[in-house]
Design a protein that fits this description.
- This protein folds into 3 domains: 114 residues, Acyl-CoA dehydrogenase/oxidase, N-terminal domain (Butyryl-Coa Dehydrogenase, subunit A, domain 1); 115 residues, Butyryl-CoA Dehydrogenase, subunit A, domain 2 (Beta Barrel), CATH 2.40.110.10; 145 residues, Butyryl-CoA Dehydrogenase, subunit A, domain 3 (Up-down Bundle).
- Helices cover 49% and strands 15% of the residues.
- It has 10 helices and 10 strands.
- The longest helix has 35 residues.
- Bound molecules: 3-thiaglutaryl-CoA and flavin-adenine dinucleotide (FAD).
Length: 398
């Protein structure tokens, strides 16, 4: 397969540092060589490519924008480019890396004790230990403030009771970051979002188990599980002490949503490039279909939307590095870029005609994946409402 050259209509490459280009090109080559040849088969069989975990670790992909503990300490642009290239391979692969780094490792780094960080972050950076992030529940998806999982303080630690649903890497993980409300914390009403705290629950702890969710038509090369916490006893040292209230998991989501905004650009690039090449080679009515005005319009609109999405994340990266990226800005990028990628994937599928429905082409796989990406980490409409609140000052959720 020829090396992917990128989609860069506005010469954004010229704005990158040598290090940023190097990170992008290294991951790009790896995705071409190691992911694209196998991902179709994994998708078909519904398996996660676990064999790639050590290679991802050698690429420095886990917690790559964190500092210390063996993490690569990348800036926001380099980190974003890494996510872009991974998702050019498959959204499931980017999800796996996002959950490990931006959700599980970030939660430990931001809210954990020194002992928790020392214990988990170095092996997680090496990919030897895997993490997951349990916020969503069967009855609380868009509205995590209402979550029903409860932790009861005991003399030795906590007893956790509840279920988490749709958890990426749930059954693969050695440690789950579980969000629960402490029901007997003096001074905090047990059902209030202020009672939400984060716990590190290890695989093998009695009362804790994970069951995979089957029948997915999207993100098939990713493990998605339900976590069951049935009288699950953990020690005092399981609590992430600095995570208090709903704001704590939402801060983790900001990190993951940021990576998704970049990742979606990668999926869109893959679909655009596939459609562009197909339009040049597919002959109908004696001419390449790319010579017809309607097909050219489609390609022109795809390229325009990708370019707008690239500009959005590049500026967002600058704001993030300056510590000025606000969460509604991250919402706009996640929402816009995933919608852009979905539109590009759908149009690519159309340009490929019947061939576009085959799993040997990339666009339908990306299209199916992006339906999940549109929903997780806050649905498209929830991000619209976050922006609506930002604009009007009036929350639509209450
Ligand atoms: P609300 O009253 O708006 O907020 C509570 C407090 O938190 C503050 N806040 C944030 N802080 C940091 N970052 C954010 N993104 C924040 N959003 C809000 C807010 O200012 C407030 O602070 P304070 O000081 O006033 O107390 O809370 P709400 O209950 O009305 O809900 C708001 C809403 C709907 C935006 C939020 O709950 C939400 O984002 N819902 C979507 C849920 C979601 O995204 N779940 C994702 C689960 S993880 C996942 O999907 C992983 S997928 C795998 C992968 O990543 O690849
Ligand atoms: P609901 O909240 O029930 O929403 C259903 C519909 O109602 C949506 O269209 C939504 O936009 C709309 N809606 C809801 N509230 C409003 C409102 N106020 N106004 C207007 N419309 C509204 N979660 C984790 O915690 N960890 C993970 O690792 C994780 N991985 C995931 C992996 C996959 C493949 C998927 C599909 C999901 C994953 N999730 C994970 C869960 C994900 O975050 C939720 O699916 C998402 O937050 C939406 O929740 P829900 O599915 O319960 O939908």
């Amino acid at each position: 397969m020829p090396q992917f050259k990128g989609v860069d209509f506005y010469g954004l490459d010229g704005l990158l540092s040598d290090e940023e280009r190097m990170v992008r090109d290294t991951v790009r080559e790896w995705v071409d060589d190691r992911v694209l040849p196998v991902i179709g088969q994994h998708y078909r069989e519904g398996t996660f490519p676990s064999e790639l975990i050590p290679e991802l670790s050698r690429l420095g992909a886990f917690g790559s924008n964190l500092r210390g503990y063996g993490c690569a300490g990348l800036g926001s642009v380099a980190y974003g480019l890494l996510m872009q290239e991974l998702e050019r391979g498959d959204s499931g692969l980017r999800s796996f890396v996002s959950v490990q780094g931006a959700l599980a490792m970030y939660a430990m780094d931001a809210f954990g004790t020194d002992a928790q960080k020392e214990r988990w972050l170095p092996p997680m950076a090496r990919g030897e230990k895997l993490g997951c992030f349990g916020l969503t529940e069967p009855d609380f998806g868009s509205n995590p403030a209402g979550l029903a999982t409860r932790a009861r303080k005991t003399s030795q630690g906590y007893v956790i009771q509840g279920n988490k649903m749709w958890i990426t890497s749930g059954s693969l993980a050695d440690v789950a970051v579980v969000w629960a409300k402490i029901e007997n914390d003096p001074g905090v009403e047990g059902a209030s979002p202020d009672a939400i705290r984060g716990f590190l629950v290890e695989k093998g702890v009695p009362g804790f188990s994970a069951q995979d969710i089957h029948g997915k038509l999207s993100l098939r090369a990713s493990v998605t599980s339900e976590l069951l916490l049935d009288h699950c006893e953990v020690g005092e040292d399981a609590l992430l002490p600095a995570a208090r209230g709903l704001k704590a998991p939402l801060r983790c989501l900001n990190q993951a949503r940021y990576g998704i905004a970049w990742g979606a650009v990668g999926a869109a690039m893959a679909c655009y490039e596939e459609a562009r090449q197909y339009a040049a080679s597919r002959i109908q009515f004696g001419r390449p279909i790319g010579s017809f005005q309607l097909v050219q319009k489609k390609l022109a609109e795809m390229l325009t939307e990708i370019t707008k999405a690239q500009l959005l994340v590049l500026r967002l990266a600058q704001l993030k590095d300056q510590g000025q990226a606000r969460h509604p800005q991250i919402s706009m990028a996640k929402m816009n870029n995933v919608e852009t990628a979905l539109g590009v994937a759908r149009t690519a599928r159309d340009i490929l005609g019947a061939a576009g429905i085959l799993d040997e082409c990339q666009c339908f796989r990306h299209l199916c994946n992006l339906e999940s990406v549109k929903t997780y980490e806050g649905t498209h409409d929830i991000h619209l409402l976050i922006l609506g609140e930002e604009i009007t000052g009036i929350p639509a959720f209450a």
